[in-house]
Design a protein that fits this description.
nine-stranded mixed sheet; disordered C terminus
Length: 217
């Protein structure tokens, strides 16, 4: 599963890359995007495409095992099973689709307690697209999550899953297609030769950046 990615371009650069308008408001996005933190998404609204800021992860209610009382929700930031209760009501609705701009995503590699970050990029694409879904939540406002699929051979040495990545010519189909299109994207294999991998010595569990606003309510 993908629990860390970056978007190292400005909001203006991302909007220009996708040929979309900027939504009103500030785009204070952390250098590293983690579950429960803000990120950028492209979605369609009133006949045009907008770049907006949302929180990465659908809130899943949680209760304390000790007291049984509600505690902060869990941010569900990856979409694996489209038939699960969290996704089945929106999976076939184009109005709930979005594109997640990414410059690179990371997976953990190594022994427990000493895992490091291995980064993946798409060749010749300084910004690439991850297929996502979004909704308006009571807890955190607009939220989004990314669709996952089985890995290709380029990623298999590190992980058996990967984000559903979109080619530039596939944006319309993702944002406007039906449920069959969503399933087809999840079933297809992204080309191995388009993936670049960089193994690093960076600790996986580095100190998290502070969110620009409280994430959990």
């Amino acid at each position: 599963m993908c629990n860390l990615y970056t978007e190292r371009k400005s909001a203006a650069e991302v909007a220009a890359h996708f040929g979309v308008d900027l939504a009103p408001g500030e785009f204070n996005i952390p250098e590293e995007t983690l579950p429960g933190y803000p990120g950028m998404v492209v979605r369609e609204a009133e006949g045009r495409r907008l770049l907006e800021k949302m929180i990465w992860g659908f809130p899943l209610p949680q209760k304390s095992k000790k007291t049984g009382l509600p505690i902060k929700p869990k941010a569900v930031n990856n979409i694996a099973d489209l038939s699960s209760f969290m996704w089945k009501f929106i999976a076939g609705k184009p109005e709930n689709r979005c594109i997640i701009p990414v410059t690179e995503f990371a997976e953990a590699e190594g022994e427990a307690g000493s895992k490091t970050r291995t980064w993946f990029r798409v060749k010749n694409q300084p910004i690439f697209a991850w297929a996502g879904m979004w909704k308006a939540s009571d807890e955190w406002g607009p939220v989004y999550s990314g669709l996952m699929t089985d890995c290709n051979e380029a990623i298999r040495p590190v992980h058996d899953r990967m984000p559903v990545l979109l080619m530039p010519g596939e944006y319309d189909r993702w944002l406007r297609g039906g449920l069959d299109d969503v399933i087809a994207f999840q079933d297809r294999c992204f080309p191995d030769d388009l993936i670049e991998m960089e193994r690093t010595g960076e600790p996986w569990n580095r100190r998290k950046p502070a969110p620009e606003q409280p994430t959990f309510i």
